[in-house]
């Protein structure tokens, strides 16, 4: 489904390289976790995959369903089924959640040749999804993320994921800033949404999320590269030993997994 | 910056109402003096008191100086070469729509304005003003059944002199300001509305203003009176052809609300705004003021200002009656070389009076957009309240946004809160919406509409669609 | 506009003829004389003066200083702040007094003294009267013509003043109203650091007009903390022009406390000269009786990446009148500006008046600017809350007024000044126990 090949990227207009040759392969039905210390390039990888204009790809490629998506605009990537749950969801004052989601749902539906929903049908459709993240109805009429608490913003991202039904979900530190109850709700939601036809990439700092969502693969990213890959036991080892034992490894051998 | 470009191209959409209508005009001398003022009055068969009203205003005007305190620079109108009266030739009194000059009818059709009575579904009574002369008023009979008088001001002077005499100039005195004085001397037509006691006006009233003649100024006069326990909602729309020369529009609008009465006045202003280099376009110098004379009365101004080369306009409310309420909701969009200096005045005189101001300014291109407002709580206005929110959005780096709120309180029980912010369409917002599958153009449109939402929702239902359409013309792309 | 032809002569123009040259500042005097001849005395028809009644100034018969019959200053030690024991400049009616001053305790690289002893100093020739920029302002030009002494503060590169510098301006009793023209020049070179306490005190209840002109230059990375306390006589007239220029990475934080004077017009300005600056222009105004306090400030952002804050708090009682106009300019190309202005007015009396005009003028799109202004009385809910906790209504109002005013002086770095201002606020709120309000 997704294949990242020797990906290099810099901040647009600057020389500092943030991704220094990332390789990653994700198949349908899989859950991957990417872990790593602050500044290792995890969030950048997610943003680059979604096409954030702040970054420029200087080498390598991203293949999605076998084709390069580097030339696609962010909205075209979204139409193709790529969803990014933002680490810091953006506030859009005056635009309600419903407006955004209907607009979004219908453009994606149209691009995939599915039927668009009128406001009433759409209302029915999203009511079910609300329960998934245990949010109240009035939440729909509030401006997107405006005045939301940190936890509400994160739940809103998962709610949007539920509505838009992406094929590939990149969840950027969706667990950070959540208390234990909210974390359970969010993880439950993600687990319910995940199936055989889609893939999920979890970007996280902490092992605790992986107690609730079981990854098939765990990758460690340090210094703009994936330095180690393994199964979920790798996450436990990281929890115990930190990243130090891998950092030396990173400078010697960038190739892993 | 790509989002800026996209937005600029959207806002830069061509003006669709720039065509000219080919009609014959009555001859009328250019320039202004007492004889011209008399001639206007004569042409309109006005009674002596009206002629005197005009002459007095004219004499005031000659003693006044053209103001220059606002935040706009432009070539001053040439008052001595302007034509102060412009009427299409075939226009004595019209009894049915068939008698309207077909060219003019076509004009209104092109503008999408229903003049024909059979367009009942629209449910809106229309007074169409073409180069300062009222062409036709629809639904007159139906309104008359309810006791509502809706006609041109010229007719009102003939048919309801006692009302015009009593109220005209009572809110905006002839010497109020330079342009109001000029209007009082030379106004040619406009709309008049009287809603009697205990009456809710059965439909939306609306006037469409069209400037066609190249050399004429438009000086219309609107007077709306809402008696005790009455209610009326009124909307005006404005368009003009594209000429290289500037045209002057100096209107006066007076609203009077008595005990428990409510007037809602909405404007969709889309005069021609001139070209990229600031050539042509309307000077929109308008005095609009409402008086909440009665207890518990309410006056609400809503405006969507998108056109004109230069706009100087401050729809105001004088809150005289105890517990009266004033509101001002405004969206002003400027682009190219447009200059808008607009806002409101809320003058609190009565006890427990309340006012709300919500102003949204969007500037793009090489334009300047200023909010200028005054909130005043006088010594006797116990427990008066005001809340103001003035937000500006800038698009690109060659425009300017300005806020000049004048706030004054002389009463310790009064409370004024004013907030203003400046922001822009953020790259992160656009990316977020794009990531949800929405195109860049639509994302911008959504954000701008979200920014204006609080104001747009105040427009009467019948016109909300029209307003959205206009914003779409200025800000192309889909609106949710 | 066409000022060259239509200059109206005022008392300042007349008094200017009586000023005798001291032999100092010849160039500045010449220029000021020329500029004064080109400038008119302001009046209400000018937008910037529209709310300010200048009659207290124009109706006073000022006499040349020599003819005013000034009395000597006594008991002035009480105004010395202990932290500035060895870093104090004292001016009486604008004249420097070495015997009360003490300038030994500032450490390496810090020069402090009377301006007229530093006429040849590079920074003086480079900046004095060059930074002040108020267009055709009669007050500035009169000061330029009249001043001889003044405070001079210079910090060399990396110099840190070891103690806060107190610039004490005292005004004495006199038989006739006189005019004083204090002057302050601060030049802080790269990475230097200084705290300045500028104090204006009227020793008696007499009428005088003081026109302090203050010029500040903060070079790259310099930090300046500037406290300005105005405790003039309640008959005095105070027109001040403090202007600061801030270079890259510098910080300028100014706090003006307006307590005295019958009419005070204060026009602080900060001009951003490069990127990455941080400045503050806070004010506290506590007025009563017939006092008028007028602040017209300008925060001028000319380059990208600037942060600025302004908190202007006002309490009005009696028949006092407060005027505020705070301009925030963000020029073209000055992106990523973060500017916040807040003006809070507490109107306590039936005869008081508050005029405020916060003003944003923005020409760049990537900025975050906001202002808020409120006028009102104390929140009845808060008063009730305190009453329900056992306070009398008067006490509750006193406590809340005190708390309202206190916020602006929280950032005072010098302890004795902080204490002094708390006492002033306390004295004001106590005296104005708000009992005058009819509920």
Describe this structure in words.
The complex is a heterotrimer of chains A (257), B (480) and C (439). Chain A has 8 helices and 12 strands. With 257 residues, chain A is α/β, with parallel strands linked by helices. In chain A, helix 5 packs parallel to helix 6. Chain B has 480 residues and is α/β, with parallel strands linked by helices. Chain B is 24% helix and 33% strand. Chain B contains 11 helices and 22 strands. Chain B has helices at 2-11, 34-43, 48-62, 102-110, 140-145, 153-159, 161-167, 178-186, 427-435, 440-456, 461-474, and strands at residues 124-130, 133-137, 149-152, 191-195, 204-210, 221-226, 231-239, 246-249, 252-257, 262-269, 281-292, 298-305, 310-313, 316-319, 325-334, 339-342, 345-348, 354-363, 368-377, 385-394, 400-409, 415-424. In chain B, a hairpin with a 2-residue loop joins strand 1 (124-130) and strand 2. Residues 1-12, 117-122 and 476-480 of chain B have low confidence and may be disordered. In chain C, the strands form 2 sheets. In chain C, strands 3, 4, 6, 7, 9, 10, 12, 14, 15, 17, 19 and 21 form a 12-stranded mixed sheet that branches. Chain C has a 10-stranded mixed sheet with strand order 2-1-5-8-11-13-16-18-20-22, covered by helices on one side. In chain C, strand 1 and strand 2 form a beta hairpin. In chain C, helix 3 runs antiparallel to helix 6 (138-146) and helix 8 runs antiparallel to helix 9 (415-431). In chain C, 53% of the residues are buried. Mean pLDDT of chain C is 92; it is low at 1-5 and 434-439. The interface between B and C is large, with 36 and 37 residues. Strand 22 (415-424) of chain B pairs antiparallel with strand 22 (368-376) of chain C.
**Secondary structure: number of strands of chain A:** 12
Which protein chains make the most extensive interface, counting residues with beta carbons within 8 Å of the other chain's beta carbons?
B-C, 36 and 37 residues
Number of helices of chain B: 11
Oligomer: heterotrimer
Provide mean pLDDT of chain A, rounded. Answer: 87
Task: Round the Cα radius of gyration of chain A to an integer and report it.
Answer: 18 Å
Query: What general form of chain B does the structure show?
Result: globular
Low-confidence stretches of chain A: 252-257
Rg of chain B, Å, rounded:
22 Å
Strand order of the main beta sheet of chain B, please? 2-1-5-7-10-12-15-18-20-22
Helix content of chain B: 10-25%
